[in-house]
Amino acid sequence: MRWGQAFIPTLREAPADAVTSSHRLLLRGGYIRQVAPGVFAHLFLAQKSLSRIKQIIREEMNRIGGQEIGLPVLSLSPPGNESRLGEAASDLFKLRDRNQHELDLGAAREEAMAQIAHGELRSYKQLPQIWYQIQRKFRDEPRPKSGLLRLREFAMADACSFDLDEAGLEVSYQKHVDACTRVFRRCGLKYLYAQTHSTLTAENISSEFVAPCEVGENLVAVCDCGYAANVQTAEAKSPPAHDLDGNAPLEAFATPGVKTIDDLVRFTSESPTRMIKTLVYMAEGQPVVLLLRGDQNLSEPKLARVLGADVFRPATPEEALRLHGASLGSLGPVGLKGTRLIADRSLDGRKNLMAGANQDETHLRNVTPGRDFTAESRDIRLATEDDLCLRCGNHLHVAKTIEVGRLAKLGGHYSEAMHTTVLNQHGKEVPLMMGCYGIGLERILAATVEQNHDDDGIFLPRAIAPFDLIVTAAQMDDGPVRTAAEKLYEEAQAQALEVLFDDRAERPGVKFKDADLIGVPYRVTLGRRKLEQGLVEIFERSTKRIEDVKLENVVRYLKENYLR
Ligand SMILES: [Zn+2]
Hints:
There is one protein chain. The protein contains 14 helices and 34 strands. By secondary structure, it is α+β, with helices and mostly antiparallel strands. The chain has three domains: 267 residues, Bira Bifunctional Protein, Domain 2 (BirA Bifunctional Protein, domain 2), CATH 3.30.930; 128 residues, Alpha-Beta Complex (YbaK protein), CATH 3.90.960.10; 95 residues, Rossmann fold. Strands 3, 7, 8, 9, 10, 11, 12, 23 and 26 form a nine-stranded mixed β-sheet that branches. The protein has a five-stranded mixed β-sheet with strand order 17-15-16-18-21. Helix 1 crosses helix 10, helix 2 packs antiparallel against helix 5 and helix 2 packs across helix 10. The longest helix is centred in the N-terminal third of the chain and has 22 residues. The chain is globular and about 95 Å long. The relative contact order is 0.14. Bound molecules: zinc ion (ZN). The site of zinc ion (ZN) has 7 residues, from loops.
């Protein structure tokens, strides 16, 4: 492609609302333009990169026996899908047709694939199956932001596996872990593979592939021993606490205006690790009191597992008042009767702590779990940077990441709801075992940009860059330079390289700036002076290393040393 004819609308400045590097640089590099909040047009460069990502996914899905299918974007809302989809249901785009039939836009693929399987897969002889598609999806995202990181319309590769039993499902799941690993490695993405919670039900095994980067909002606890899990799921141990010695009696003290743990820290000048945070939740109409260390936070996915329920919510101030006889801010565990009390494990063996007194603007000192109240000890908190790894005892590190892939063992979740069974070898009807797997295409591109950029622009790995190479004629008005550049452009294309030929009549400085911006890994520059000695310049964008090479060898040299 000749740059002079290409539509690559680079910008010197990005709009002020583009905060993350990928958003800013993909706009500036002329990859994307915003059409509506969370909705972007992919221009020429983005489309080229995304096609390469798509191709890598196809090759790796085909390698594990995946069969590509195409499902429609529009589907009838199946009755009862809200309960099957769990928390994802509220983000679906809904519309009505002229006959007032309710339709979903880009609804859950696993739902649609499960429906097809329901009518068609009847015997163990047809199993296992892996179906996948690469298709646009829609989410009524409440806070679209960060360019391609949080979108309302996006492309995903979705796969479903169908197996006869748990053992088969495990094999299919592992195949997808391998396929995802190869996809992300080939894309040149730095990634972690982490355990996570299921968005569907508390019991399903799920994992995620995540790309560490500064703007990531998905927190993953990582240990040098290889353990990695989302902080919502991670099992971790608190370091030993230093409590006051002695068996001091409970003591109430006035705390006027204290509403939060932070207020209490300011009021008492004590560490929040010596305080008990009391939360009240409602599950199936019943209150559940949750106790955490003052500096720690609740993990709702862990709570879901403990409660064995997916539907619960924080109590309203009125509900809490009815239970505790006090307003939020002064709640505590001491003296509560007839309510389920769950204390996080980090409160095990602690003593002389502070907690609300269940009396407005009053707290208690010297609260000792086991002596002053009895609670179930469970793991219900988010893992933190302070925590120790349960496997090896070393400190965990919490990494900010972007989720790029998600895998889940659905097991019989859909087939039981839809009564989908298959005949096993003994002629017995058994529920069909399903797994579902997803990879976000724009997420890969944006996360790679987050990981590979500097002040001048983007440097994408070759596998997903829109071009392998830019050939830059420094002086297009110079006859020998132009002729040599044209010839090199032809030759590189003949050698199956994706080449962008910068044939624009711009100053060299402008051309270099644009080339640095748009993320092509290599540039070959033909300039008058070096060309007189038969030399051209190879510039490696990621390292900014420059190498002079003989013009007649340059394509072979590039292929042997850089573009293998
Ligand atoms: Zn460890």
